[in-house]
Amino acid sequence: MGVPREVRLQWQDLPSPILGGGSGSKQGAEPEYPPEKVGWHQESDQGTSSTPRHNQFWRHSAPNTPDPRKLDVSRLVTLPPPYPRHYPAMNNNHPDLASVRTNLRSLTDLSDVHSTKEAFRTKALAQRAQHAEEASSRRREMRHNIQEQLSLGQMTFATAAAAESQFNEHEALLSQQAVQTEFDAFQPDVMAPLHALLSERITKANAGIAQLQSSLSVSPSPSSFTAAADDVDDPSKNKIQPQEEGDEMPELLEKLNLLKWMFEARETLHRELFELENERNERYRDVVVTPFRARGEGDKMGEAEGFFEHDAQERKDSFVKAKLKRYEEFGRIVDDQVQRGVEAHLNAFWDIAPGLLAVVQKVPMMDLRGFDLHIPEAEYEENPRYREFPLQYLYSLLVHAEKATYQFIESQTNLMCLLHEVMTGVMVAGLNLLETQRVAEGEDTEAVKVEMQEIRKAEEDRLIVDLKEKVSTIETQWHDGLGNGLTDCKDRVEAFLKEQGGWDEGLKE
Q: Which H or E element spans position 72?
């Protein structure tokens, strides 16, 4: 439900006999029509044959002469936002963001990256296995020849030892050449193309994030309900504009979800690039260390490995610092947008809650017998039982009003949950940096990991408690502002319908 925009536009320039300020109006008197319905009794110049079904309904839903004895409950439909929405934020399917989703899918598809790495590793492992088999065969042949020459007396043990030493040096050279060949192949086959690919995708992710942030800075409030502050004291000016039918603009939550996923995709790309550079450095380390290992030069090998280990630790430290900085900046952006969104939803809720509650409070508290309300003729045609049990119509509108207005509460809660996820990510990034730094300072790696896990669990519990408190506050505002009133009224109407034999479980749907 909701007021179609094209119909509302037809009303904007129509004079109002009720609220138009004419000589016949009484200053400060309660209007017979709710403000947002003024002009509905005016006939459109267009023929009904070209008018959509829902437009016809609203054009004929108000009587030409309102019966003061019947309660007009149309505000239960006209004030709340459309429900159900065409493009709920949680479904992430608004057409205006299709290009962003397509871009996101291309960024998160790392199959080409993984296939390139896997193809090279498979080839490298096969070459290593072949090299090892050939080296083993040469060693067996060398030992067989030496043993045979020793048994024939053609070689002394000293000569045999020298021959074996010379063989080992040659094998060390071959091993070094094999590692060097593999490293040289890694550069053009893997490093260069994937480094360019990942860097390009990071650039695209940066552009996508900037695009979404730009749209956030100019995005409208989540509801188009507006009430000018200067007009609050003047009932004739205090008009709440009904929200446009449909979802012409994406909700803030959908944009923030996409922004979060885009950010996470970029972090994955940064991680892939970091691991790619790590693999390149590890292969270069093998080029340096292999000859020392083959010759049994333990001191030089240990010195070289220590150098590369220190270099890897420094690079990791730089990586996690940069990661934390990105997370903290992203957290500030999301926090600012969530606070803005929650405030906008809250304001929109309080713009309409009093008007809805005023209608609900006009329903008798005790005896509903004799209570009458205005029902459009179109509703009788669609639901003939309303003539026998008119309160079925009221109940259906109460259900609609409850579901439609609760969207404001759901939106606030979903925004808070999104912020919770982002803040958890910021916390984890901070702990990763702390763990990296403590390990680099020489603390036991396993002990530090255990401690960080305990801290993380405590911080996650704290963030969850904070989230629950915020959600509880939002729910309390809903119940106090409107929810309890709607529930109580629904219960009274349901009890009365059951007593009169007019209750239908389908009314709850």
A: strand 71-72
d(CA 36, CA 77): 11
> DSSP label at 245?
S
Residues 6+ apart with CB under 8 A from 291: 172, 173, 175, 176
Distance CA 34, CA 79 (A): 10
Last residue of a domain, one of 30, 62, 94: 62
Single out the residue of 242, 247, 489, 508 nearest to residue 368, CA to CA. Answer: 489
pLDDT in tens, 55-65: 333 333 444 45
Rounded distance, CA 395 to CA 64, Å?
A: 24
Q: 3-30 pLDDT, tens per residue? A: 444 443 343 344 333 333 333 333 333 3
Of 45, 62, 79, the position where a domain reaches its end is: 62
- Quick one: DSSP state of residue 251? -
Residue 71: enclosing H or E segment and its boundaries? strand 71-72
Q: How far is CA 146 from CA 159, 160, 165, 173, 295, in A?
A: 9, 6, 12, 21, 20
Q: Is 373 helix (H, G, I), strand (E, B) or coil?
A: strand
The token duo for 274 is 């970091």
Which residue type is seen at 241? Q
Asked if 464 contacts 373 with a C-beta cutoff of 8 angstroms, the reply is no
Mean pLDDT of the chain: 83
Residue 374: its H or E element:
strand 373-374
Q: State how far the Cα of 47 lies from the Cα of 57, in Å rounded to an integer.
A: 14
> What is the C-alpha separation between 342 and 330, in angstroms, rounded?
18
Residue 374 bridge partners (DSSP) = 72
Residue 170 placed within a domain: yes
Are the CB atoms for 77 and 242 separated by under 8 Å?
A: no
Q: How many domains does the chain divide into?
A: 2
**Structural domain harbouring 30:** 1-62
pLDDT digits 0-9 by tens, 238-275 = 333 333 445 788 999 999 999 999 999 999 999 999 99
**pLDDT (tens digit per residue) in 406-422:** 999 999 999 999 999 99
Burial of 210 (0-12, 13-18, 19+ CB in 10 A): exposed
Chain mean position to CA 212: 13
Q: Dihedral of CA 412/230/18/368: which sign?
A: positive
| pLDDT above 90 for 85 | no
Residue 232 domain-assigned?
Answer: no
d(CA 290, CA 176): 6
Neighbours of 260 (CB within 10 A): 18
